[in-house]
Amino acid sequence: MVIGGLQKFSLLDYPGHISAIVFTQGCNFRCHFCYNPMLVCPVSRVGGKLKYSRAEKDEKRKDHFSLYKEDDLFDFLASRTGKLEGVVITGGEPTIHPDLLKFITKIKKLGYKVKLDTNGTNPAMLKKLLAPLTRRSKGGNKADKKNNPPIPFLSGGRLVDYIAMDIKAPLEKYGEVAGLPLSKLSWRAVERSEAISVKSHSPEIASSSRGGTPRNDSFVNLEKIKKSIKIIMGANIPYEFRTTVVPGLIKPEDINKMGEMINGAEIWYLQQFKSNIKLVDESFMGQKSYNIKEMKKMAKIAGQYVKKCEIR
């Protein structure tokens, strides 16, 4: 696992549990408002100092390297059993790492509960993580066994005990907010929706949004986003959806469209945009956030679609 950092203690990130937070390195999105550019962008050493780059040519996952040794992480977790209750795995985007299942299995063997944060772009991975644990057969090809080794039986349950997924934007604005273009299949789906003005959200606009033109192998696949929502809502484990509400990207009327995407969900958090820290898109630094009155109005709208909506 490519690890970008470790927070050894948290009372906030895993609801109801004392936890540690593992930050994976690397992400397949370039959300303008993300406050973890050091986890999203490739990291290199320059003159003995760590430096992250926003250059598109450097955005391949192989350019990431682990800033925290995995052995050191598991030594720490082993020493904290009985004191910590859970481990939060966040990023970056954890599901871009093919060894995530193996990594979580090692954590579960220590007796910890696991919370996963994700952007929902890898429903195939989520389906494996949220499936009830059973013994696997000895079948399968060598490549699959290498990337996803057989998971030992762990007294019922699932590898992930709690999951949080970001809902970035209404479907037609996903590329603009995530800093990537929508895939061709996604645009065909958008064009089929009578409620969406395709002209006002063209692929060219999405691909040339303020974060720059993404590399050719990075697109937002809306079908995968929708599949992940469905998997999470049907997994029978605690979950949450969350949206960072950024003026200029998310408008009050967008809340209705996002609410329809997760209609009937347990809980949806609207998060206030923070601009007083380093962001992936530096042009967003210092921009004004929605005030609490505006946030409450949007939360009231969101509450019509989910069982509970709160502001963070």
Give the secondary structure arrangement, pairings included:
Blueprint: E1 3-10, E2 19-24, H1 37-40, E3 43-46, E4 49-52, H2 70-79, E5 86-90, H3 100-109, E6 113-118, H4 123-130, H5 142-147, E7 162-166, H6 174-178, H7 184-192, H8 203-207, H9 222-233, E8 239-245, H10 254-261, E9 267-272, H11 292-302, E10 308-311
Parallel strand pairs: 2-5, 5-6, 6-7, 7-8, 8-9, 9-10
Antiparallel strand pairs: 1-2, 3-4
Supply database-style keywords.
alpha/beta; eight-stranded mixed sheet; two-stranded antiparallel sheet; 11 helices
3D architecture notes:
- With 312 residues, the chain is of the alpha/beta class.
- It has a single domain (1-312), classed as Aldolase class I (TIM Barrel), CATH 3.20.20.70.
- Helix content is 28%, strand content 18%.
- It contains eleven helices and ten strands.
- It has helices at 37-40, 70-79, 100-109, 123-130, 142-147, 174-178, 184-192, 203-207, 222-233, 254-261, 292-302, and strands at 3-10, 19-24, 43-46, 49-52, 86-90, 113-118, 162-166, 239-245, 267-272, 308-311.
- It is globular and about 45 Å long.
Tally the beta strands. 10
CATH class: Alpha Beta
What count of helical segments does DSSP give? 11
Report strand order across the widest sheet: 1-2-5-6-7-8-9-10
Q: Give the helix level as a range of percent.
A: 25-40%
The Rg value, from CA coordinates, equals 19 Å
CATH fold naming: TIM Barrel
CATH superfamily: Aldolase class I
The low-pLDDT segments are 54-63, 137-141, 184-217
Q: Characterize the overall form.
A: globular
Structural class of the helix and strand makeup?
alpha/beta
Averaged pLDDT: 81
Architecture (CATH level 2) name:
Alpha-Beta Barrel
Approximately what portion of the residues adopt beta-strand conformation? 15-25%
How many domains? The number is 1
One letter per element, helices H and strands E, the order comes to EEHEEHEHEHHEHHHHEHEHE
What's the N-to-C terminus distance?
Answer: 30 Å
Sheet with the most strands, sense and barrel status: 8 strands, mixed
